[in-house]
Amino acid sequence: MSGAPVSGVSPALAGDGRVQTSDSYYGLPIINEPVWTWEIPVYFFTGGLAAGSALLAPLADRSGLGELAQAARRVGAAAALASPPLLIADLGRPERFHHMLRIVRPTSPMSVGSWVLAVFVPAQLGGALLAELDILPGLRRLAESVAAALAPVMGTYTAVLFANTSVPIWHEARTELPLIFAGGSAASAGAAALLVAPVDQTEPARRFALLGGLAELVGTQLMQRRLDELAEPYQEGEASTWSHRATGLTVAGSVLLGLGRGGRGSRRGLALAGAASMLAGAMCERWAVYRAGFASARDPKYTVKPQRERIERMNGSDSG
Amino acid sequence: MSAGFTAPSATSGYDDAQPRMGFFTDTSVCIGCKACEVACKEWNDIPATLFEFSGKSYDNTVGLGADVWRHVAFIEQRVPRIQEAALSGVFTEERPGEGGEGGLADFRWLMSSDVCKHCTTASCLDVCPTGALFKTEFATVVVQEDICNGCGYCIPACPYGVIDQRKDDGRAWKCTLCYDRLKGDLEPACAKACPTDSINFGPLEAMERMAAERLDTVMAAHVPGAQLYGDGPSGGMDGVGSLFLLLDQPEVYGLPPDPVAVTKHVGQLWRAAAVAGAALVGAAVASFAGVRR
Amino acid sequence: MAEQHPVGFQWVVEAQRRGAKVIHVDPRFTRTSAVADLHIPLRSGTDIAYLGGIINYILTNHREFREYVVAYTNAATIVSEEYVDAEDNGGIFSGFDERSGTYEVSSWQYEDMEVASASGQHEMGAGLGEQHGAHGGSLEHGQPPSEDPTLEHPRCVFQLLKRHYERYTPEMVAEVCGVPQELFLEHAEALCANSGRERTGAMAYAVGWTQHSVGVQYIRTAAIIQLLLGNIGRPGGGILALRGHASIQGSTDIPTLYNLLPGYIPMPHAEHYEGLDDYIDKNAAPTGYWGNMDAYMVSLLKAYWGEKATAENDFCFDYLPRISGDHSAYASVMDMLDGKVKGYFLPGQNPAVGSANSRMHRFALASLDWLVVRDFSLTESAAFWYDGPEIESGELDTPGIGTEVFFLPAAAHVEKDGSFTNTQRLLQWHDAAVEPKGDCRSELWFYYHLGRIIREKLATSDDERDRPLLDLTWEYPVQGRQSEPDAEAVLAEINGWKADGSPLGSYTEMQADGSTTGGVWIYCGVYADGVNQARRRRPGDEQSWVAPEWGWAWPANRRIIYNRASADPDGQPWSERKRYVWWDAEQEQWTGEDVPDFKASMPPDYVPPDGSQAEDALSGTEPFIMQADGKGWLFVPNGLKDGPLPTHYEPHESPVTNPLYKQQANPARQLAPHRHNPSNPSGGGGENPYPYVLTTYRLTEHHTAGGMSRTVPHLAELQPEFFCEVSPELAAERGLEHGGWATLISSRTAIEARVLVTDRIAPLRVAGNTVHQIGVPYHWGFRGLVTGDSGNELLGVVMDPNVHISEYKTATCDIRPGRRPRGPALARFIADLPRADDAPTEGGDS
Ligand SMILES: Nc1nc2c(c(=O)[nH]1)N[C@H]1C(S)=C(S)[C@@H](COP(=O)(O)OP(=O)(O)OC[C@H]3O[C@@H](n4cnc5c(=O)[nH]c(N)nc54)[C@H](O)[C@@H]3O)O[C@H]1N2
Ligand SMILES: Nc1nc2c(c(=O)[nH]1)N[C@H]1C(S)=C(S)[C@@H](COP(=O)(O)OP(=O)(O)OC[C@H]3O[C@@H](n4cnc5c(=O)[nH]c(N)nc54)[C@H](O)[C@@H]3O)O[C@H]1N2
Ligand code: SF4
Ligand code: SF4
Ligand code: SF4
Ligand code: SF4
Ligand code: SF4
Ligand SMILES: [Mo]
After folding, report:
1. pLDDT computed for residue C144 by the predictor
2. A253 to chain B, minimum CA–CA distance in Å?
């Protein structure tokens, strides 16, 4: 249209979404935000907790730490018990939760997870129940070893689930997320057991929690380094607050647990505080990752920029 | 890179009697009449939802979603944007016989009707835990509404932001490429309604040929920014069922410039998980080191 | 066209694919501009200056198609010396009467020709001028006007044309229309380059051209261009009137217009006729096809009153209702306000939104005794009495409104059989897909049964005034549970019968002696051989490219009228590329792709013997068979109320003072003075309290007053809110915020709209200053799924004098940020608005 002004935009109108930019359609997202609600990150936490506990229990048992084992069993059972309802509550059509078991699909972490959960939860609960009733020890051990065998998957598949989406901040962190979630699993399980079990048996739980916390912190650092610009949501905005809380709590927890070694008396207090802090940290970490996904999906630049750079690189290599 | 994981979507599982069907949407002749949007909603009985002035030119449905399976984008452009667009096109010379800066028209109004890409490697399908999403004999990707349990996984999985959840209904919805009509040898409602043949439908090979020919024509006419969009077999989606002729970069239309199916990395992912899982076990065992009674 | 005729536009895209150049002239950059090869923005209301500029370009550069112009137009005809052109008289032609604001046209006549009676509208006396035939002027046969084939005579039409458009230069076009010269010249040159022997060019228009106080003259200007370039009667040429409602063409042919009988036969006036013969005498043109008007008229009367219509009783001519003046829609509205009209029938119209000054319209409806609305839903026009803005503002209150409103649910087109007539005069039959729900009924059902019941009630009456009703032929077969009359039976009646009851094949078979019937002479042949020709659907690839077997076109299934002009005077195609119909010397026949426009056996060299009548009085080289002289009229000696040559006047309301003439607006335009219908002051540029040009239009997403789109979710969501389009410059000037609210103000009222800031409506340089235009789609109202103020609240009623169409397309307004006053505050606000000291001085009066 000849006569159309080139410098037509008055300051009043700048940035009103009217004028087209080169990198988006009115700044609207390219991919869709997830529709998952709070139940999912909470389940990620309980699932991880259950997984870690499923490892602690039999090991404690074999090491003759009967009460630690019992504590881990109880924590694990509680976490396992809470998990399925959370998953189902999040479904758009909860009455169809069983459709999850129509097929097995390795490219769908949710499919894999559903099957694992379907075996893990009964095993975990069964083991715990037999232990409470103190009957059929053989069957109990079988159940516990089944749960333990599945634990590594339980503790990490949720990371795969997030990473196996087009949400840049999840997908591009695919090598680190499992480590972080596994760490959270250990940290929370150890911390929980430490809170419940009698002091003289908690040393392994403390170590487990510390190692977990360490993995979380290291993993998070590695992830943010790899994500580079994409990590922005972890540095600013709502998700970053949770991310900072997570790190803070985990660091504090680790320090306190470190001090709370062998914990009697005041030390015992430090250890308990540390454990609580660890648990909270693990939960915050899940929440931070969850929220960061939304921020990352919402802003088209996170989707476009890496893809543009990829194209540039390829064009470069072509002409090269 | 999919490391032993063949994407369920990649193989339709039908004997190849039926050729793969697809779209070629030629945005250079789109008049923004939205007949496609309305025809789609009428045929598929999709509820109207938004009743709000968006201020985004003539676009008030704003984007593809559970209740918008065909969406017409409206983009008003001036120089210098048009010049940038020209540089992004398959050729960059000036358009002769036009007023305005650098021989380019100094204003233009782009319209484009977007739709599900019916990807070869369809992330939505690959992550669907219920099998609600499936590949039809036409190699199109369709949700079975009686199976979908609204787990929501397909939604962030789609690299194009196509499929979405209908809030009051809980299930995921998207273009079916008029599976019911195709079974009855009818062309899709949107293509049928399109007055200017901006939307073309047919066997994918034919669409690919048509797209190539059309690109030559608009190049000859020196239309700035002309470029084909639609991932090829070697691309991140291993090919798509919806091709487009665009007059600017994909992202200007709200399309990802170089999407990759999430499925491509799922092997990598499981391996990372395995390592982390092993570490978890290791940590547990290590925690009991030297603990004995 | 892409906006309002998207389906038809596919053929424009097709033509473009084949190399056609598409040029779009519109104040705004629309969806059409988006795909056009060239968009030319101009100031709304200035097309006559623009097109006049093209005429000037053609003449000064000798680009006219000489042979065509000399042979087929009245270019050579010499005009009376009493004629004074507007150029020499400050913009007013000879014969203007200040007092009545009307023209007396005798001075526009051809030289030494008695002013013969001119088909339906020669006497410009108030009432009779309202009679409206489609036919132009007429000649005493055997008296061809004096001509100068060299086109040199100072008073020949060609020279008059030259002088009249001398000042319409590219500079002037830029000055008046705000169109940069290079753009204008590119258009003018493209048009000329694509005309002549080898090529043709077409023009398509709709209400962007008609809805002006000079609307008819817009089309006249286009006609002059197309005649000069030889683009009429030839394939790929023409002026395409893109029509409105699906069969609006049909409702002009078989008119819903008060001043026409079917087939453009003028509606008789109350006082002026002794009887049928007198009426025929005064209205028929002795030469040309209107020479057979007696046959068409008698056949029509026979269709109405059957055997009751006899030669003895003038075929019941006196049963016909008569008109006594202007009974057009707006005139009736003014009469409602004056309490002269008591009852009103709205079968498919929503004036409370759709009519200019809809606010005044609602006051008018509120002063009726009764109102009948037949529609799909309770439209604004059916609900104004309890839901209207005037109730909110307290200017009207429901108990105070005496109008008794009857709402009758209507059936939609998919629920009934019938035909659509499109812009190409093509009738296409459609069959009902579903039966109407509930009490919804078709128009056919409604009027048939209404007539039946009235006739039953009157059956015993011996009152003379009931005869016309009781004598009507009113037998139609009914079918189905709802006793729906058979639409094809009506089509057969429209087509007509011979005495023996067999269907007529063509209007040429119609007789004036009462031996034939026929409801609409131009539709005669649609039921030839007892077959519904409009139902034909032979695919294009199974027949010639003209596709004569798809539907049926009036007249005589002719796809291009005046097609004699597609061949040269000797009957040979102007060019092989553009051959259409031609004279086959061996066969002694006209042959070709289409049905010729005249007797197929008439040789090109036929010269009418003295005393010959009707079509026989036209020579073999006169293509325009409906004109008395068989020629295309560059200059109109008769038949127009506002001048023989189109002249640029400013719209009734304009911020610009007419740069071409002392006369600001069309002196003969029709005004409707009323306290509810004030005018904005015109001219004066920046001083004007309403400094911006306002134009109204449609969106693809909605339909007219919204009754069929604001009520449909899938359409309503596409354009959910009323908005106005403004340029970034105007937004900056007035502090309007994109996406925010604006209040638009005229002397009628204030409305509010969301603001869409867009480069699609760029400011223009006019007469040295910047002119801002504001665009407003008019689809919204106070009911339906999505509601909003109607653009028509802003507009005043001012009309084209020929057809009473109102100036919807151009007015003036002011605009401010923010929302409008509501309730009583609005009424107070309106009272204080500046108005022109009413009834503008320059002429005009309704
Ligand atoms: N989708 C849709 N289609 C429709 C209708 C509808 O409501 N919706 N209505 C139907 C009906 S009833 C009709 S009559 C037709 C009308 O069809 P159109 O005439 O195409 O409809 P409008 O949009 O009113 O006017 C056309 C254009 O005229 C421009 N214009 C304004 N002033 C001027 C001027 O002075 N000169 C020129 N050259 N252009 C000017 C406006 O900017 C507008 O873009 O559409 C029919 N088709
Ligand atoms: N500002 C402004 N005003 C304008 C115009 C403009 O360009 N600008 N354009 C003018 C033009 S061109 C026109 S045509 C008018 C249109 O103005 P209107 O004719 O008053 O408005 P419509 O909404 O077309 O009204 C038609 C009604 O008929 C109903 N209807 C549809 N089919 C049937 C049927 O079969 N039977 C019956 N009984 N009813 C039916 C529909 O529901 C609708 O309510 O608007 C005019 N007003
Ligand atoms: S575009 Fe998205 S929704 Fe469509 S098939 Fe591809 S991944 Fe699935
Ligand atoms: S929401 Fe439905 S379609 Fe999408 S992944 Fe879950 S089950 Fe499959
Ligand atoms: S193919 Fe069918 S479902 Fe898909 S967009 Fe077109 S009309 Fe809608
Ligand atoms: S129907 Fe065709 S022309 Fe109309 S908006 Fe859709 S794609 Fe464009
Ligand atoms: S509504 Fe009817 S007339 Fe209008 S464009 Fe569509 S098909 Fe043509
Ligand atoms: Mo119309």
Report:
1. 67
2. 17
Identify the residue whose C-alpha is closest to ligand 4 atom 7.
B148
Q: CA B173, B174, B178, B183 torsion: positive or negative?
A: negative
Residue B293: predicted pLDDT? 54
- Reference C797, options C241, C177, C324, C326; nearest CA is C326
Q: How far apart are CA C100 and CA C303, in angstroms?
A: 39
Q: Which chains touch A (3 or more CB pairs under 8 A)?
A: B, C
Q: What are phi and psi of B103, to 5 degrees?
A: 75, -5
Which region, left, alpha or beta, applies to residue A104 given φ > 0 means left and ψ of -120 to 50 means alpha?
beta
CB C702 within 8 A of CB C711: no
B98 has pLDDT over 60: no
Task: Over range A297-311, report the average pLDDT.
Answer: 95
Distance B15 CA to ligand 3 centre (A): 22
From the CA of A92, give the closest atom in ligand 4: 1
- pLDDT range class, residue C267, cuts 50, 70, 90: very high
**Residue B56 to residues A120, B52, B59, C333, C539: CA-CA distances in angstroms?**
51, 11, 5, 40, 41
Task: Kindly report, residue by residue over C29-62, the tens digit of the pLDDT.
Answer: 999 999 999 999 999 999 999 999 999 999 999 9
B68 C-alpha to ligand 2 centroid (Å): 29
How many percent of chain C have pLDDT more than 90? 88
**Closest of A97, C24, A26, A171 to residue B74, by C-alpha:** A26
What residues flank ion ligand 8 with Cβ within 5 A?
Answer: C 244
Taking only the tens place, the pLDDT of each residue in A182-200 is 999 999 999 999 999 998 8
Backbone angle region of A217, left / alpha / beta, with phi > 0 → left and psi within -120 to 50 → alpha: alpha
Mean pLDDT of C455-481: 96
Nearest-by-CA chain B residue for C4: B33
Quick one: which H or E segment has residue A54?
Answer: helix A39-62
Give distance in angstroms: CA of A159 to centre of ligand 4: 19
Comparing CA positions, the residue from C709, C671, C821 lying closest to residue C331 is C671
For residues C495-523, give the mean pLDDT. 96
Instruction: Quote the CA–CA distance of A285 and A280 in Å, as a whole number.
Output: 9
The closest residue, in CA terms, to atom 3 on ligand 6 is: B30
> In this predicted model, what pLDDT tens digit does every residue of B234-290 receive, in sequence order?
889 999 999 999 999 999 999 999 999 999 999 999 999 999 999 999 999 999 998
Name the token pair of C521.
Answer: 């002479």
Using CA positions, which residue lies closest to atom 5 of ligand 3? B118
Q: Rounded mean pLDDT of chain C?
A: 92
Residue C467: what residue type? R
Ligand 3, residues at Cβ distance < 6 Å: B 116-119, 122-124, 141, 158, 160, 162-163, 174
Burial of residue C412 (number of CB atoms within 10 Å: 0-12, 13-18, 19+): middle
C136 band by pLDDT with thresholds 50, 70 and 90: very low
Q: What residues of chain A lie within 8 A of the CB of C39, using their CB?
A: 1-2
CB C285 within 8 A of CB C313: no
- For residue C503, what are its two tokens? 């269907």
Q: Are A41 and A287 in contact (CB under 8 A)?
A: yes
Smallest Cα distance from B188 to chain A, Å: 25
